[in-house]
Amino acid sequence: MSLKKNSIYVIAEIGVNHNGSIKLAKKLIDKALQCGANAVKFQTFDYKYQLNLKYASKKAVKFTKSLQLSFKDFINLKKYCEIKKIDFISTPFDPISASFLNKINLKLFKIASPSIVDYQLLSKVSKFKKKVLISTGMSKKEEIINALKFFNNKNVTLLYCVSLYPTPFEKIDLNNIKKMKNLFKTNVGFSDHSVGYELALASIGFGATVIEKHFKLSKNQKCPDSIVSLDPNTFAEMVSKIRNIEKSIGKGNLAISSEEKNARRNIRKGLYYKKDLRKNSFLKESDIILRSPSTKFGIENYSKIINKKLLIDVFKNNPIKNKDLKI
Questions:
Q1: Alpha-carbon dihedral of residues 14, 76, 86, 124, nearest 10 degrees?
Q2: Which residues span the domain enclosing 40?
Q3: 97 & 200 share domain
Q4: I want to staple 270 with a disulfide (CB 3.0 to 4.6 A). Which of 36, 71, 123, 294 is the partner?
């Protein structure tokens, strides 16, 4: 996850929207790249390790198995992403899948919200010393604190999210992004499960530096996360607006641009004498008029010239000049 300062890292969350098809997964990668995403993210699991087959329902087993890609598929997809020059990320759901992803040199791991209390998985991933994204949906403060104990905070980006699909706007509190950043001393992003992308854009104003949004191939694609996923046109629209917002993230030093300095000369009023005045007179507010156009000795100097002594005779409607006064 390499970014320039003030850049927003945009992740197209493919997850299991490939429906178990590597061919569809590659199409989704191509579209995400066209949309301007920095990365695509998948889910890596083996249903035999994900589920207790003794107790899981047949329906759950069948559904989970249908969405599984093989380790060989993921090797293929990672190489495909490298060729296409888009970051490949995946979420392991068990220690074996995590070890596999580390073996193929995954640079950025994702911990899903349900796994924030999976200490076996956290322990395994922590040993890799890689950068980690951790989603915090459903998590209490103490659970986030305990999860962070496994990692160096410098390598962690927490993703604020609410684990409702879709998440109603009123159930999201974007102020938590600021709160988490201050409380946990980590980088913080936003994993958005709401419909649309308004909150993804708004989260940047609260300090989010990573945006994760579910992604699908088309509006009509049938896939597990369809209701909270953006189609390519909408995703590209979101990314374009994020890139525009990036341009407006500065240092907050209240400085004005050189272009603005030039503009204010044309817009602001100037300082002029209201009447003729003799040398050695003291300039009062009643002796000054403010009119357009602006003058070289700008209106911002107004307070400096009140009650100052004139060094020369001056005349009505002439501009006030710095050399006229003893300042």
A1: 70
A2: 9-247
A3: yes
A4: 294
